[in-house]
Every structure is written in structure tokens, then in C-alpha cells.
Amino acid sequence: MIDIRLDPNPLPRFQRLSERAQWAMDRAVALAAQEGAAEMKGELARQNLAATSLLINSVSAEPVEPAVWKFGPKVEHGWWVYQGRRPGGKMPPPQPIIDWMRVKGLGSDRRSAWAIARKIQQRGIPPRDYVTPVIAFTLQRLQVRAQEELAKIADEG
């Protein structure tokens, strides 16, 4: 998960902002997090990283506390797609492989899934970075949203 945090500690003036301005900044962070989650879904689709819709559909944005949101996939294999898997170690669980086989029209044979899991254990899988482009996009959107929200307050009075 990616955290978007507008940290008031290095910004003492933030604490003196009016309630309306703090609300506007909270809203800017919320909008940027939601747009970042949508961009992450798009990035996963663009890179063709989701054999099933499970990974893409699991991406969401949620508030943690005021001015702090997090977004990202909520399935375990999202981490393995991003980090990759080194050769050796534990075999991956067979059920996600069986689900992938069904989507690809390869049947749902447990022996075949085991063979694929064994091959992943032996060879590993390369990492696929779908996070870095999303972070850059989200930071840019946060800046735009913050300026828009503060401009609204300035225009109101």
C-alpha cells in the first residue's frame, strides 16, 4: 500500500490554517489518493500484469486519519508481482495458479498447477514495477488538487 500523508509537523503554519483550509487540504489528499488508486488500476492493465481481474479490482483507497490516505492492492500476490520472486524458497500457493489457468483456458488440473508452482520456485519470476509511475502521478495530482482546493477558499473570501 502507498501512503499519502500531509504531515503537519514540518509545517507549523498548517496548524494555524483555518478549519476551512485544513478541510480543503484533507479533501486534496483524498482526491489524490482516489486518483492514484485509479491510475494504479490503469497501470496494472497497461503492463498486462493481471491475468485475472482480482488484482486490479483489489486496488482501493482508504482513509487512515485526517490528511492521511493509503491505496494499493489488497491481495497478497500484488506484492509478488511488484517484488518478483527469487529462485528457491517456498513454492507459491496453488490456488492462484489454478485460477490463472482457468482464465487462460488451461483447465484446472492440480498437478499442472503444482508443476507451474515448482517451476516458479526453481526459476523465480521477475519484478514488475507498477508503483513508481503511480507515485509520480499521485504527487503531481496532489499538488494540483491542493492548489485547486486552496484557490476555492481564496475565491470564497
Adjacency order of strands in the biggest sheet: 1-3-2
Overall 3D form? elongated
**What's the oligomerization state?**
single chain
What is the CA-atom radius of gyration, in angstroms?
20 Å
Termini separation (Å)? 37 Å
Class of secondary structure makeup: mainly alpha
Roughly what fraction of the amino acids lie in strands? 5-15%
Largest sheet: 3 strands, antiparallel
**Structure annotation, total helices:** 7
Total DSSP E strands: 3
Summed up, the domain count is 2
**Poorly predicted parts:** none
Q: Quick check: average pLDDT?
A: 82
Account of the protein in words:
The chain has 157 residues and is mainly alpha-helical. The chain is built from seven helices and three strands; from the N terminus they run βαααββαααα. The chain has two domains: 112 residues, no CATH class; 41 residues, no CATH class. It has a three-stranded antiparallel beta sheet, covered by helices on one side. α2 packs antiparallel against α7 and α5 crosses α6. It is elongated. The two termini are 37 Å apart. The mean pLDDT is 82.
